[in-house]
Amino acid sequence: MKKKTKTMLSWGLTILAAACGVAAFFVVFADAVSYQGLILGSTFTGLQIGLGYTVNNVVVFEASAGVILAYLLPLLAACVLIIGKGNRILALVASALMITGGVLAFCTLNLLNGTSVGVPALAAGSVASGVLSLVGGITACGTTAVKG
After folding, report:
1. What is the pLDDT of residues 68-77, one digit of tens each?
2. What is the CATH number of domain 3-146?
3. How far apart are CA 138 and CA 121, in angstroms?
């Protein structure tokens, strides 16, 4: 392959991986956990379960560092990808950050710090964040293979 074609493909993969990381971060505003319980049957966003949520002075969720990291690691990886363009080691670090964020997003139920008011289930936000993070991590890893 020509050098110009490799450079353009590498840039395209980097932008795609960074876009996946930014999108995985903004999924924090979508529903992350749904409860089907006796008292309440509702959903909570990633922001509510990550930073803590109270209703009428009753703590439903305490802050969870793991859930916060599940959404911040892909954003950090996107920043590392854009700032460190052309550096293979930084691309691998960004890939590891995104994959870790994706795994944490799928482990949201285990990272909950709250009272049990029903049976929790993963909602669309956690799944979307995990998938976007994993796709971004694989794409970021792929940029190192293209750089020849």
Report:
1. 999 999 999 9
2. 1.20.140
3. 26
